[in-house]
Specification:
The structure is a single chain. By secondary structure, this protein is mainly beta. It contains six helices and 26 strands.
Length: about 525
């Protein structure tokens, strides 16, 4: 048999995956159908017409070989994706086996701010065999892999919200608003097994703002322990929800612990990050300044942060989460006053807040907190607490601010809880029956009760909120969220002082890849 015909058979075996009802069924494609299969490759863009003509011309031989092609279920997106439960190929795409490079994982998508994975040996081999790049669509956007092991993948998200508040005794709080919680576009990739990068910008406020932007190096300390070092802007870890990307939190907004205990840098800061992952545990250490778009006219506020978690109990059905975090801030000399104005009911009601009041001449702060969680198949329960002590030249003793949260949820359609053992954070659930494959998607119900206490500050207030929510996951990249929030605030500063209650309903449509 001629070499060109052998190459054609290899290309056809990799690229053409007909559908049938039986995943194990195999069929023989006689040589007479060879030209039809080559034409299919041309229509898919896998080979050019010139290459196809050469294959047909070179493959005229009296030998009648048979091509073995593995069948995949009709409802599957591709053979490998069925086994992994992560298929998200659009149903009108041709059934290509190139997506077989997807790495098996428990969740539908890895945590958004985790480092991009290195190229798999299968993806590299496919690229070498084809002489070009291999493409993996399992995460909702194409991941390109070169024969040399380089990868590139675009990233993006759109989180569009509408919310309405009523029941407040202040007319200014009873408003209906719309907005974008996040509109981001970016990219990520790897250079071989060790070097990786990621960059992402947000446009939701009408201006561009760099979020994550870093380069990193990773290596294995042993077979089951990986460590990585990063320089750039990366998500600052604090609490479970504070360490989770905003597009993968079960609720529409992070809890009171994550928000009230946020450092001056916010969610991102430029600096050094070290992460070490083991079986059921991880440790993160960060030394950062201010965000990429921060003020460059004075010294940065310097933040030293650490977070760790462990799963002392982890079985197929049960996981126990224990975690803790701590950070220390040395404020910039240019920071004349520190004031926390925390939104109580999601993002798009600026009048519904709890305030600490101004703290003049702040010098440093020390914050710390704990995390406990129990995850049982499709159900999860978490409790979190945080405390922040702020030192100021204007006050004789530190001011103590605190926050707490208790939350839980249940995947009603049988999916596993949206939790990642690797980093001790939330992740997107794996949707078993995506709507684009004719299914109903996945439905999760959730509840959260949380509170903040800023009363130790001279004019600080208190708040609490009860949130009930339902999430409908259409597939692993799109979902619809509905949150109802009953909030109580008691401010001692600003336009809305005194005890007040309000009811807020928020809805979001989200696409993230």
């Amino acid at each position: 048999m001629k070499k060109s015909y052998s190459m054609a058979m290899a290309a056809l075996t990799m690229a053409v995956v007909p559908f049938s009802a039986n995943a194990q069924e195999r069929q023989s494609v006689p040589f007479e159908k060879f030209k039809t299969l080559v034409d299919l490759l041309v229509s898919q863009g896998s080979i050019s017409q010139q290459q196809a003509d050469a294959l047909i011309a070179d493959s005229t031989t009296p030998v009648s070989p048979t091509i073995e092609i593995t069948q995949a279920p009709a409802s599957a997106t591709n053979a490998t994706a069925v086994a992994q439960g992560i298929g998200r190929r659009p149903t009108d795409d041709p059934p290509l086996a190139l997506a077989a490079t997807a790495t098996p994982q428990r969740q539908g998508r890895r945590p958004s701010y985790s480092a991009p994975p290195a190229a798999t040996p299968e993806a590299i081999q496919q690229a070498k065999d084809s002489g070009t790049v291999s493409v993996d669509w399992s995460e909702g956007a194409p991941r390109f892999t070169s024969p040399g092991g380089f990868t590139f993948r675009p990233r993006g998200r759109a989180l569009m919200d509408v919310q309405s508040t009523g029941g407040s005794r202040f007319a200014g709080r009873n408003i209906t608003t719309t907005g974008a919680r996040g509109i981001r576009i970016g990219f990520e990739g790897t250079f071989g097994p060790h070097l990786f990068y990621q960059a992402e910008a947000d446009f939701s406020d009408g201006t561009s703002e760099i979020q994550s932007a870093y380069v990193g190096w990773r290596t294995k300390l042993r077979d089951d322990i990986t460590t990585e070092f990063n320089f750039g802007s990366r998500l600052l870890e604090r609490a479970v929800e504070g360490s989770t990307s905003s597009d993968q939190i079960p609720f529409m907004e992070r809890n009171a612990v994550a928000l009230a205990m946020s450092p001056v840098a916010g969610s991102f800061g430029v600096g050094l990050t070290s992460k070490t992952f083991g079986p059921g545990w991880h440790v993160t250490a960060q030394v950062v300044g201010e965000p990429v778009n921060g003020d460059a006219a004075s010294d940065d506020t310097l933040t030293l942060l650490a977070r760790a978690h462990v799963n002392p109990l982890r079985t197929d059905r049960l996981t126990f989460h224990v975690g803790g975090w701590i950070y220390h801030e040395r404020f910039s000399d240019s920071l004349d006053a520190l004031q926390i104005n925390l939104r109580v009911a999601n993002r798009f009601n600026d009048n519904l807040r709890i305030a600490s009041g101004p703290l003049g001449n702040p010098r440093s702060s020390l914050a710390y907190g704990g995390e406990l969680g129990l995850i049982s198949e499709g159900r999860w329960l978490f409790g979190e607490y945080g405390r922040r002590n702020i030192r100021s030249d204007a006050l004789a003793s530190p001011i103590a601010l605190s926050a707490w949260s208790v939350s839980g949820g249940w995947m009603l359609t049988g999916e596993d809880a949206p939790y990642s053992r690797r980093g001790g954070v939330f992740a997107t659930p794996n949707v078993r029956h995506p709507v684009n494959d004719g299914g109903w998607g996945a439905i999760g119900a959730l509840a959260r009760y949380e509170g903040t206490d800023f009363a130790d500050a001279p004019r600080g207030g208190t708040s609490n909120a009860l949130t009930l929510g339902v999430n409908w996951y259409l597939n692993n990249i799109a979902q619809v969220m509905v949150n109802y929030i009953h909030s109580t605030t008691n401010n001692r500063t600003g336009d809305y002082q005194g005890r007040d209650t309000a009811d807020t309903i928020s809805t979001r449509f989200q696409v993230s890849f």
